[in-house]
Amino acid sequence: MRIGIDYTAAVNQGAGIGRYVRGLVGSLASLDHSNEYVLFYSYRQQKKPKLVLAERPNFRERALPVSDKFLAILWHRLGIPLPVDLLTGQVDVFHSPDFVLPPVRRASKVLTVHDLSYLLFPECADEGLRSYLERAVPSSIARADIITADSINTRKDLICLLDAPPERVEVVYGGVEERFKPLNGNGDALPATRRKYGLNYPFVLSVGVIEPRKNLARLLQAYALLRLRPDFEHKLVIAGAKGWLCDDLFRMVQELRLSKDVVFLGHVSDADLVALYNLADVFAYPSLYEGFGFPVLEAMACGTPVVSSNSSSLPEVVGDAGLMVPPEDVEAIAGAIERMLSDSQLARDSRAKGLERAKGFTWHRAAERIMAVYNRAIEER
Fold first, then answer.
1. Which of 87, 113, 138, 143 lies in the 20 to 30 Å Cα band around 169?
2. What is this structure's pTM?
3. CATH superfamily of 2-174+362-379
4. Which CATH number describes the domain made up of 189-358?
5. Cα three-residue angle 102-106-111, rounded to 5 degrees
6. C-alpha angle 308-278-250 in degrees, rounded to nearest 5
């Protein structure tokens, strides 16, 4: 079987979908040595990226030195039918793991849709991206032979909101990289990270792109309530790049007089991220909506007690390993963080349950599931 995969997100996106595609395809490379894979990607850099996977004997790459935005305009706005398999060569299955299918001539088509936040929370989405997805995703679903979703919740959303045929939608959970694990104070990683970011104090951690859907405004309000207590010493550390509509959040920090207590680290490397999870006393993630929720899984894999919202897919990931609260309830967010910090037995239980639960989400398992999807797509052709 010859399988084409759109690898563009893996090359151009550091987190989120980029992490998903790298994890999935990396495990496919470790697991499958018989099928042939062609990784198609467009790139914006002046110099073509070097893919380690391209060195595998059953993996090939086909790179196009144009931006992914240009291709989206070409395919989905102008409607120019330039089939992607002209670039990959003839394939049996083509997998687009980033919401939208390009034109494909004869291959069976597999599409991954990670979430429908742009429909459910349109006020939290970039207007241009939302408009594009509203046009391109439904037509891609109509053309796909099989659609995969990151969670049962996203599967339900696809069926209810976009009329995706239930028999054509399968769930393929993401995984967690092996690097996310308890460091147990061994080596220099933890003290080096403390020194690098000046984290010489206890802290609550949140991770993710700074955008309205992550609900950081309510997390700030909850933190402000906690800071009213004279014995509360923890700072709030937020790791993540700036996204859209984030200016209001920084103004809120000033309005709440939290500029000395809330620390924005910006984008951090995966190595630093592992250490940050390990250093944090609580990981807080009150997101309004997630298709999967990599940060809570990574935190659990590192043994960090988790406070999460009880919305969308997050209960599927967290289970009984953390405290879950309504994301709109500021007092509930504050109360859950306080409970996790003050109740040492609760925190120990959360650590133990989180470590055990994280073992169930592996990229090896995800790769096995997606290979079954590819085989099904061929069989039903």
1. 87
2. 0.93
3. Glycogen Phosphorylase B; (3.40.50.2000)
4. 3.40.50.2000
5. 40
6. 55
